[in-house]
Amino acid sequence: MAELERALAYLLPWEFSPAWALACLAMVGLYLRGLSRRRRSGKAEGFWRPLAFFLGVVAIYAVTQTHYDYLAQYMFFTHRAQHLVLHHAAPFLIALAAPLPVLAAGVPNRMKDFPGRAIAVRILWPLYRLLQHPVVAPMLFVGLIYFWLIPEVHFDAMLSRQLYQVMNWSMMLDGLLFWWLMLDPRTPEQGGLGYGTRIVVLLAVVPPQIFLGAYLTFSKYELFDVYAVCGRAWPLAPLADQQLGGLITWIPATMMSVLGVLIVIRYLLGGKTDGKLYLYSEEEKDVAV
């Protein structure tokens, strides 16, 4: 019984964050509400898309609101695994689920016409289009990884609660923007990014991640002394910790791009019928951010 209690204690937040908890709860709540509404109107979502969405949200919660967050703050390789989830795996799953029609259906009607909505759209839309530009998006995607791994910046981020949260939020939000751009269900004719451009972008982000991961893996010097200052959660040699973090930055992260390319090719080849592309319902294709 005591062992079970200790195991369950690891599922509790290390440092409770209302923002992370509310974001995950809101996403799940809106999605469940949308699923129910669409089911009543005769629109079934199937099994795999909701599964991918919930797995993505649960993964975000697991690395930010359980005791895993403690390990991410006191071991470099677990920190890199946390960012692999926040920047790659979880956003990838959420984008793959194409959840916008369901989330839109889950929004209460009174919130859809809130005062100032048109003004907010006019202000935020140009920024969104800039961030989704096929040149800006990959530069930001890779640039954030490099930025937060500058030793001096990383040192400050790991010692400041506020900056630590900014780092994690920036990685998660950028991951959602990038993978939505890559896995957008809309065809190029409907405003989605061209399939060839998506493949080029996905391949373009691979070499910088390989270089960074290899540099961390094969470096003979300890680059992140913050873990020596604060202590490590496990008695692992500093260089071994750094090498494991480098491998996580290198291999699984780049493999996500390969998987993305395969999915885009599937979009292209699997959806061809009489010269047109039919991958999603017309409603899903028309939904834009």
UniProtKB/TrEMBL annotation:
The UniProt keyword set, sorted, is: Cell membrane, Membrane, Transmembrane, Transmembrane helix
Q: Which InterPro entries match?
A: Caa3_assmbl_CtaG-rel
Compartment list: Cell membrane
User: Does Cell membrane count among this protein's keywords?
Assistant: yes
Q: Give the top-rank taxon of the lineage listed in the UniProt record for this protein.
A: Bacteria
The protein's predominant localisation is: membrane
**GO CC field:** plasma membrane
Indicate the secretion signal residues.
none
User: Which residues are listed as membrane-spanning?
Assistant: 16-35, 47-64, 84-107, 127-150, 162-183, 195-218, 247-269
The answer to whether UniProt assigns keyword Transmembrane to this entry is yes
What is its membrane topology? Multi-pass membrane protein
Pfam families xrefs: Caa3_CtaG
The name under which this protein is listed is Putative membrane protein
